[in-house]
Each structure stands twice: as structure tokens, then as C-alpha cells.
Design brief:
Elements lengths: L13 H4 L14 E2 L5 E2 L6 E4 L5 E6 L4 E5 L7 E4 L6 E10 L10 E2 L6 E8 L7 H4 L6 E10 L4 H7 L11 E3 L15 E6 L10 E6 L3 E3 L1 H7 L30 E2 L3
Parallel strand pairs: 1-8, 2-15, 10-13, 10-14
Antiparallel strand pairs: 3-6, 4-5, 4-11, 5-7, 6-7, 7-9, 9-10, 12-13, 12-15
Bound molecules: N-(3-hydroxybenzyl)-4-sulfamoylbenzamide and zinc ion (ZN).
Zinc ion (ZN) binds next to strand 7.
């Protein structure tokens, strides 16, 4: 597949310049998932998702993506099953995307890049008392990754896209209530799972990744709305929020398991 645009670390958004400092990681993310090297695990259960749309709180621009935050003070929006030993609470979801449709996702499948990738971030309320604590716990977090591909208009996503002009600049926020992120899930239950890390600092190795095999379709206008966001605050010289993905990391001594043959 097409390699990513060559990028000089110096051009990277300040966030990833610290990238060069992280050393000694043995389970970093994202990775290229080689389909033929993944191992079917018959013990993997179907993933069970129960999101309560009223737990949706607001959308904000945090300077490297736009993020939708949820009320995680109770077990109202949870996932369970799959590779998980207990339930995990939804904390937020966000996206990573490219300047053009040729790249943008963080994970790849057989070196195939998608124009964008959705991350639904969950934490373990059984072993941690807060998200902040879970970030430091081994397997404290579960992130579901969903690839976005160019295709039909996505009606569910459009509600999100319509709110983006209100969070154009870094550190802006807008109320966003009653949204069910299940509408962003592909209907196909198939996924890969592996042990990895956050893909932005602090890059902690606390994430059980669940990557859905089947992408969802969004249209060109929707992707272009993502690219209208800014990394920069109001009043600063404008820098478009694009290419907010981390480079691929070495698989090292890890096996990717699949839920499907
Ligand atoms: N791209 S990712 O899904 O791996 C990802 C998910 C969550 C976060 C995140 O929550 N970062 C903010 C943060 C960092 C340290 C402590 C905190 O409480 C929050 C970063 C990356
Ligand atoms: Zn992410």
C-alpha cells in the first residue's frame, strides 16, 4: 500500500516531538496488523456494548483532536465480553485523520491506511477508582478502534460534524447532549485485539486495543469538516488540525489475536 507521507519529526506537532524521548517501550501503539500473522482465538467472546446516550456531556478541541466526553460516574455506558474479564466504562471518544484521503489512520491492516480512525476510550472501574488512575494501570484501559473509509454519507456522524465549527480552536468547548456512539460501530462483529499503549503522551502501556475489522463509511464533506479544525487557539497563527496520527510502532514480542477465522 501507499507509504505515509515522509514527515520530518521537526514538523511534527509539538505533541509528538516528545515521541523521540520515549524509549524502552515494549508494547507501543499503533501497529500494522498483518492479517496472516494474527491468531484466531476461539475463546474470544462477542464484544457487548451498552452505551446510554444521556451520558454524553460535551465536545471540545484539546489541541490534537476533537473529543466527546461522557459522564463516567456510574456503569451507564459500558463494554464487556470480547477479550475483557470485566466491564469497562466509556470516558470519551475522538478521531485521528490525515490532510488528504491517502492517509490518516493510526493502525494499518496489511499496510493499508484509512483516511481516519475513531477511538472509543474506556477504563476499568473494578481495578481503578478513576480514569486518571486507570491510565497508569496495566490493562487499565480499553480502546476500540474503528476505521473510517471514504464512501456514503454517515447520518449519525453528521450530528457530530455539525458541532465542529463551534470547537474550531484549541480549548473551545460546546455542549453536546444525547448522542449514542453505537451508531459509529460497524455491524460486523469481527475484531483484532492486542496489548498496546496510548498513542499520544504519556504513551503509557495500559491499553487493551480492540480494532474492528470492518470500516464505517463517511463522505468527502464530512472528512473535510474534520480538516477545518485548528491545532491553534483563537488569536494564534492558524495551523489546520490534520495528520494527528502517531507513526507505526514495532510489534516486538506481541501476537495479534482475531475473533474470526
Ligand atoms: N489515541 S489514544 O486512544 O491512544 C488516547 C486515549 C486517551 C488519551 C488521554 O486521555 N490523554 C490525556 C491524559 C493523559 C494523562 C493523564 C490523563 O488524566 C489524561 C490519550 C490517547
Ligand atoms: Zn486516539
Amino acid at each position: 500500500g501507499l507509504q505515509r507521507a515522509p514527515c520530518r519529526y521537526a514538523d511534527l506537532h509539538p505533541l509528538w516531538q516528545s515521541e523521540l524521548s520515549v524509549s524502552g517501550g515494549t508494547r507501543q501503539s499503533p501497529i500494522n496488523i498483518q492479517w496472516r500473522d494474527s491468531v484466531y482465538d476461539p475463546h474470544l467472546k462477542p464484544l457487548k456494548i451498552h452505551y446510554d446516550p444521556t451520558t454524553c456531556l460535551y465536545i471540545w478541541n484539546n489541541g490534537y483532536s476533537f473529543q466527546v466526553e461522557f459522564d463516567d460516574s456510574a456503569d451507564k455506558s459500558v463494554i464487556m465480553g470480547g477479550p475483557l474479564e470485566n466491564h469497562y466504562r466509556l470516558k470519551q471518544f475522538h478521531f485521528h485523520w490525515g490532510a488528504i484521503n491517502e492517509w490518516g489512520s493510526e493502525h494499518m491492516v496489511d499496510s493499508k491506511v484509512y483516511p481516519a480512525e475513531l477511538h472509543l476510550v474506556h477504563w476499568n472501574p473494578v481495578t481503578s477508582t478513576s480514569f486518571e488512575e486507570a491510565i497508569m494501570e496495566n490493562n487499565g484501559l480499553v480502546v476500540i478502534g474503528v476505521f473510517l473509509k471514504l464512501g456514503a454519507h454517515h447520518a449519525g456522524l453528521q450530528k457530530l460534524v455539525d458541532a465542529l465549527p463551534a470547537v474550531k480552536h484549541k480549548d473551545t468547548i460546546v455542549e453536546f447532549d444525547v448522542f449514542d456512539p453505537s451508531c459509529l460501530m460497524p455491524s460486523c462483529p469481527d475484531y483484532w485485539t492486542y496489548d498496546g499503549s496510548l498513542t499520544t503522551p504519556p504513551l503509557t502501556e495500559s491499553v487493551t486495543w480492540i480494532i474492528k475489522k470492518t470500516p464505517i463509511e463517511v463522505d468527502q464533506n464530512q472528512l473535510e469538516e474534520f480538516r477545518m479544525l485548528l491545532f491553534t487557539s483563537a488569536g494564534e497563527e492558524e495551523k489546520r488540525m490534520v495528520d494527528n496520527f502517531r507513526p507505526l510502532q514495532p510489534l516486538m514480542n506481541r501476537t495479534v489475536r482475531s475473533s474470526f477465522r
